[in-house]
Amino acid sequence: MTIAALFLTLLVCMLMGMPVAMALGLSSTLTILFFSDDSLASVALKFFENFSEHYTLLAIPFFILSSSFLSGGGVARRMINFAINMVGHVKGGLAMASVLACMFFAAVSGSSPATVAAIGSIVIVGMVKAGYPKEFGAGVICNAGTLGILIPPSIVMLVYAAATEVSAARMFMAGFIPGIGMGLMLMLAIYVVARVKNLPSQPRASTKDRLLSLWSASGGMFLIFIVLFVIYGGIASPTEAAAVSAVYAFWVACFGYRDIGPMKNIPWREEGEALPAMMMRNIMQMSISLPRCVVDKEVRATVLDAAKVSVMLLFIIANAMLFAHVLTTERIPHQIAESIVAWGLPAWGFLLVMNLLLLAAGNFMEPSAILLIMAPILFPIATQLGIDPIHLGIIMVVNMEIGLITPPVGLNLFVTAGIANEKLQWAVKAALPWLSILLVFLMLITYIPQISLFLPEYIDHLKGYK
Q: Are 150 and 181 within 8 A, CB to CB?
């Protein structure tokens, strides 16, 4: 009765058009009030505990703030230039460079929609000018942008780690090889299509141009090494690394590249200026400009945008964790687990059913909400069947990637339609031809666990050896 009431109330609320966060919270509260022995006071208590107990979730607003500074600070444009200089001379090279740029930006943003917005707003127009069909460019970016939640650091991985209490650092490690593999699969598909359709290529860049573009992009790309080194080196937790990334992204955007903030467009070196004089001038300008960043319109707008996204996402997470609390209190995951185990499904059969369930859920809900609802149900079943929790997490993240490009609630579709100035139906039509690649990739990730587990197990072996 409790199970039926909980899920029926959730379904009715969502069919009425209620926001997902509100639907999760209302269905949980009504179930506690009318069908559960739990106290209604536990609702307020659980909201507080969600963030006091799950320290890892505090990394989310920091990574979002970091992504906002890098998106507005011209980092994406510099990464695109470097990617074009590396692979632009190949058939379909501009599209392949877009995928490569998405891989770079994914490693500093942790968000799929942010990756699509930052990279797509620049490269879709560039591909059209270079002679690519607009649908082709938009479809590539919409799919490649999903790498934002697979290549670490990933906000969705942090949510999974909080929901299942697995190591966020191990999840990040496990996402590396799958993220690179998926990017290479997309690039290979682009190359094949480009050869068939005779798509254009860019002039081959000189070694000097490649080195200069690498130097230009290094300010943003260095963030990748900072975050991953301090996490994998055991120097800091993912939350502490996220805080460091936000501070570094602020510095790079305002004082490194100087694309936003009070020092905007002030060159590092004046013509004919001696090196000592240049260093002294820049130190003085930074010391004067740092307090002015507090009142700078662009900096405040960037922080405000990040705060809005963070509050929205954390509100969804809080309500989803309340929903998960009701599930756990009523032993619903245990009952479902016992029922599925009683069916006698082998591990491969369970994974197939799980993928179908997650793909269906991805059409209608936001990834973080799906993970917080489904992970407590699927996790105990997977562990009983001998499936590694880290492997399970990567499978769920890849399913969430596909959900981001499937209607009607695919976030990447809305972002792509917005930056391309087209209707949602057009974005769906552009993205769907590439969906088959992600589905093949999902099967590989599901049934070849070592793709996900090789790197964390290898690093654990090295630590044990030391």
A: no
Note whether residue 148 is domain-resident.
yes
Q: According to the model, what pLDDT value does residue 466 have?
A: 45
Report how many domains make up the chain. Answer: 1
What DSSP line would sit under 112-142, residue for residue?
Answer: HHHHHHHHHHHHHHHHHHTT--HHHHHHHHH
- For residue 43, is pLDDT > 70? no
| Residue 423, phi then psi, degrees to nearest 5 | -80, 160
Cα–Cα distances in Å, from 428 out to 136, 143, 146? 12, 11, 15
> 286 lies in a domain?
yes
CA 267 – CA 277 distance, rounded (Å): 13
350 vs 352: CA distance, rounded Å = 5
237 band by pLDDT with thresholds 50, 70 and 90: confident
Nearest to 13 by CA among 364, 336, 311: 364
How far is it, in rounded angstroms, from Cα 219 to Cα 75?
8
Q: What is the per-residue pLDDT for 55?
A: 65
Q: Is residue 436 part of a domain?
A: yes
Cα separation, 18 vs 12, in Å, equals: 9
Q: Which residues of 17-35 are buried (b: 16+ CB within 10 A; e: fewer)?
A: ebebbebbbbbbbbbbeeb
Condensed to tens digits (0 to 9), the pLDDT of residues 307-351 reads 888 887 778 777 777 777 777 777 766 676 677 777 777 888 889
The dihedrals phi and psi of 156, each to the nearest 5 degrees, come to: -65, -35
The answer to whether the beta carbons of residues 114 and 132 sit under 8 Å apart is no
Structural domain that includes position 284: 38-267+275-465
In a domain, 242, yes or no: yes
Residues 6+ apart with CB under 8 A from 457: none
Cβ(76)–Cβ(107) under 8 Å?
Answer: no
The three-class DSSP label of residue 210 is: helix
Q: What are the CA-CA distances from residue 5 to residues 29, 58, 111, 363 (Å)? A: 11, 32, 34, 23
Provide the total of helices (H) and of strands (E) in the chain, helices listed first. 22, 0
3-state secondary structure of 35: helix
447 SS3 class: helix
